[in-house]
């Protein structure tokens, strides 16, 4: 006799099909988008509002190597999110719920992190806003790509 929620002994375990090419190509596109969000954020806050984020004011609108660092970290975070959602889709029930919680909490951490620095308040707020927008972009884009990858695998499977 099977207990609710358990498979009978010897029954095949249901699996979820994932179109990995769709998932990872969408993940690379997400990495590009969030890197550009970081760049736009720096340009807007430094150029339009004159807030010296990531570099001293004398470094101009584009900032310095820290801008490239932020863009790179955003892109790597997106790729880590794709790896995480891939793992969750393969192994976890309600994978996208867990993914949303994990990325949401990481976004909170990224949004709060600038406030532990010695920067002025405007720089902290600008950095926090950029971080939160990047987190929301990763959450929305990777979740959508994951849904598409599962749906495509089902249609093609």
TrEMBL record:
Alphabetized Pfam families for the sequence: DUF6069
Coiled coil: none
Residues that span the membrane, as ranges: 23-49, 69-89, 96-116, 128-150
Keywords, sorted A to Z: Membrane, Transmembrane, Transmembrane helix
InterPro entries: DUF6069
Annotated protein name in UniProt: DUF6069 family protein
Lineage: Bacteria, Bacillati, Actinomycetota, Actinomycetes, Micrococcales
